[in-house]
Amino acid sequence: MTPLPDSGFAGPTAAGGLSAAQYAVIHDFLERRVGIRLGPDKEYLVVSRLSRLLTCFGISGFAELIDRLSAADHGDLQTAVEDAMTTNETFWFRDAVHFRVLTDGILAESKRTSLRIWSAAASTGQEAYTVSICLQDAMQLGRVRRSLDYQILGTDISATALQQAQTASYCGVSAARGLSDDQRRRYFLEQQGCIELLPLYRQRVSFRPFNLLQPFDLLGRFDVIFCRNVLIYFSQERKREIIMRIARALHPGGHLFLGSTESMSGYQDLFEMRNLQGGLVYRLRS
Ligand SMILES: C[S@@+](CC[C@H](N)C(=O)[O-])C[C@H]1O[C@@H](n2cnc3c(N)ncnc32)[C@H](O)[C@@H]1O
Fold first, then answer.
1. Is residue 156 annotated as a catalytic residue, yes or no?
2. Which terminus of the chain has a lower count of CB atoms within 10 Å, N or C?
3. Domain containing residue 241: CATH number
4. pLDDT per residue over 15-42, tens digit each?
């Protein structure tokens, strides 16, 4: 790892014990390792997300944290900082139109017997599992070939988020966010304030840690990629570079979903923008 600049200078404007110079160092660390750009004036975010971590690691303050981050033998600390600084917000049936685009648009016009799907910033798993729920429903209703052999891979850089995803069990106030009462009853077991996804919807979904800045080759190729609400955190150059690699990870004619507030202009040579079932999706040109 490249040594981090000297962190001793506390700077004139220290927010919660974090100086402007220290903020710049942590910002640079995250940009290089995760791609995330916090932007200016987000000192409060760093303080609120890393303060607990300082206590856990027995670190006296941000100056010591930065010194330790630059040491090669502090992989656990580096990973914990990356994890703590990710924004894992997600919910069930987010941008619901995308799932209809998949089942009633893309699959309705395809003769595919198998399908490989990648949820590329899976967070706590709701996106990958929502795809599975929608595919199972469509198969049962005969809108999609009943024998469709699908596999869904969910990846994320946050180990904490993925641990939650793997359990498929959600507790607390946000557990059922995005679900109607009917969906909650149909797809989940309810126990003591927690909801647990039924095995039918979990069985073809797997998760593994993965940083989008790494080469995608080991993951194989996909028919559909969901890369929603993550590229917004990256610089334009990084976003472009990741989209180019996504194109190489898709089978010819494969589809890419971005978040509904994200746009992708300047890629007309590579992707055709389609409006299906009232939603937008990008198809890789063959
Ligand atoms: C806001 S959530 C989006 C979750 C889901 N795709 C959705 O739309 O609901 C963004 C996720 O991207 C992940 N992430 C951020 N940088 C990443 C990177 N370099 N590689 C892989 N995942 C990353 C975060 O950990 C977080 O879980």
1. yes
2. C
3. 3.40.50.150
4. 668 999 999 999 999 999 999 999 888 9
